[in-house]
């Protein structure tokens, strides 16, 4: 098995620029419309905190629904066509609202919020499709930089959109903002038409027949579930930032639209800096920058309690968003790295779900606290509660880092003068032949053959693996390499039991069986293959093997499209020397046996 670091060739850069350009155009209109609607509703109600909170909650609830139900569709549908279709659908939704107004109706607060709710429902599928396209197109170690670029564009457009909307409402009207938003969606769709389709990954690899829930849906990796819990906790504390600019500008600084634009501008600049910083630190430092960012968010939330001191309020909120972007990029990149490519859309949707579920909790807390106590004291209590929740997020991240590793990618030395990659569509055309050459080169290296087994939630699983090596004698460590789209990968995490049967020359059929993707799963896959339960781990060990090891997984290290599974050896046994079977060997694409197949004397430790 081999891990290859692919260069970012011009053929890959061009689609990325096209995708990000389309995203920038649509996000400008999106932020302009969203900010204009919220500010319009807030002013129509004469600064009603209840209406502001209700409006934001009604916008976020569709995002929650879309994240859970619609986002996984990105893994089933063509991502490019989905992105184009969503831009067209969003433009049509706003056309209906605008047509009603031009026909003689009036734009009401309810109608605009409903339109924004429709856009919010579609947002998770758009985000998931965009993320899935990036995951299908880029190598794993290229995702942090790509996510940082997306975040940076989002916040640059946030600066332009949110700073412009309140000022435009003073010199124009809401229908003008709606028209401009329609135009941005149309332009975005036209740019996406020129986007090449994402590479097609093998069907069935790592699909729902891996480790599944009762509904048949593949489970997320345990590391992903921990990180999603941290994402929820952080946003439950930091979600108040969605209310903070409006509340502080109107109720404490007395500047209305002017102070709202100033706070939004400062927040956007902080977020852009944070996204830029995240793209540089996450690749080389793993989860650590995200954990430190969660602590910085907590400190910033304490600073945000000084709502009557303008410069402290503005600085604290912008610093909070800076740290929040570092956290988001680092944790999302790790979640996407821990999940197979064909589940990128679902992983993106759950990340969005965790984010907006946390924000919704924060908004509902604001509504509840302001209803029972003085506004200023209630707002301060909310901010301090948020700081505590952010610290809990940092703690969860730290525990996850210790259990599953920081996720620092394995680096590969790059030649001083790399061969230039072909430009245009030829880069994609050469990717498969290059992979074939690497695979062919690997076949020239003779290896033993193992069946690696494990058990998770009482469900056993095994697979044929020939990328098995000893790593260390003291402590006793071994490693295997597992394709990130393989069923076996979904069963493995830190401390997973591992049974390794080194196959004998008489077990060629066994090797073929456990390499067959269409074999039965669970206990049924062992039918016709005698096995016993390991004494140390409970993992299955096949009878008639040449040798056996029982291990516990120490950590999984991402290496291109594979994971290096480092395991601690707990016990080892070798077959009796007079059983007549030497080890099975794989070389030149064929199973072979050694001429002198008698094993050396050995025993059990």
UniProtKB/TrEMBL annotation:
It is a multi-pass membrane protein. It comes from the Bacteria. The keyword Signal does not apply. The lineage of its organism: Bacteria, Bacillati, Actinomycetota, Actinomycetes, Micromonosporales. GO terms for cellular component: plasma membrane. It is found in: Cell membrane. SMART domains: Flavin_Reduct (SM00903). Residues 442-593 form the Flavin reductase like domain. The keyword Lipid metabolism does not apply. Its main location: membrane. GO terms for molecular function: FMN binding; oxidoreductase activity, acting on the CH-NH group of donors, NAD or NADP as acceptor; transmembrane transporter activity. It holds the Pfam family MFS_1. Keywords: Cell membrane, Membrane, Transmembrane, Transmembrane helix. This is Flavin reductase (DIM6/NTAB) family NADH-FMN oxidoreductase RutF. CDD domains: MFS_MefA_like. SUPFAM superfamilies: FMN-binding split barrel, MFS general substrate transporter. The chain crosses the membrane at residues 48-71, 83-107, 146-168, 174-193, 226-245, 257-279, 291-314, 320-337, 349-372, 378-396.
